[in-house]
Design a protein that fits this description.
By secondary structure, the chain is α/β, with parallel strands linked by helices. The protein is built from 11 helices and 5 strands. It has 2 domains: 132 residues, Rossmann fold (3-Layer(aba) Sandwich); 64 residues, Putative phosphatase, domain 2 (DNA polymerase, domain 1). It has a 5-stranded parallel β-sheet with strand order 3-2-1-4-5. Helix 1 runs antiparallel to helix 5.
Length: 209
């Protein structure tokens, strides 16, 4: 753990909840959207996904846009199922670590997400752990679709720092996307990049086991 840290900002997907983008790709392909890899990936997104993540379009427009590019008719339920297929589980040890950390640090959640995924990951949390929403572990939650900006834009990091009176040098940001890490570094925020295969329980907070 980096010395002098008082505040920790967590990413969600790939850091707290396990995700598998391939499952969504496979589900969309099965539904008749064969070019999904070209439309979406972790590092590059088409404008449709950017707009959805920043709340510039809603659930209905997002779904209808995907239905239009499908090779065969797909229902709203099929699109939602495919879009949520990437969301897996919240390992209990990660949630325990958040509880432990909250005794000593201010905790914040900063996620590029959307209204369909927000409902889905909170449902996963409720069904698996009887916890109503991910926000219970944090002092404040920042979801891109709710605030209209997304990582790695410097404005989103500035907002978290300014609204909560945080000093960048005393703030740690943990994310599994390199471009987001670089965005935080530009403001002087301390960072930990979770490379593929790394976890917070196995590589960052091992002393808390």
């Amino acid at each position: 753990m980096i010395k002098g840290i008082k505040h920790i900002i967590f990413d969600l997907g790939g850091v707290l909840i396990n995700i598998d983008y391939k499952l969504t790709e496979q589900a969309f392909k099965a539904a008749g959207i064969n070019n999904f890899p070209e439309l979406y990936s972790q590092l590059h997104q088409s404008s449709l996904f950017d707009k959805f993540e920043m709340g510039q379009i809603g659930r209905s427009e997002f779904i209808s846009s995907l239905q239009k590019v499908a090779a065969a008719p797909v229902t709203e339920a099929q699109v939602i199922h495919a879009w949520n297929a990437m969301l897996l589980d919240f390992p209990v040890r990660r949630l325990q670590i958040l509880q432990q950390l909250h005794l000593y640090y201010d905790l914040f959640l900063l996620s590029n997400t959307n209204e369909i995924h927000e409902a889905a990951f909170n449902e996963i949390l409720m069904q698996s752990r009887s916890i109503p929403n991910i926000g219970v572990f944090f002092d404040k939650v920042y979801f891109s679709h709710r605030i209209g900006i997304r990582k790695p834009m410097k404005e989103i990091f500035e907002r978290v720092l300014t609204e909560n009176g945080l000093k960048a040098a005393e703030t740690l940001f943990i994310d599994d996307s390199p471009q987001h890490i670089e965005g935080a570094k530009l403001l002087g925020i301390q960072t930990i990049y979770l490379e593929k295969g790394m976890t917070i329980e196995g590589d960052v907070f091992k002393a808390m086991q």
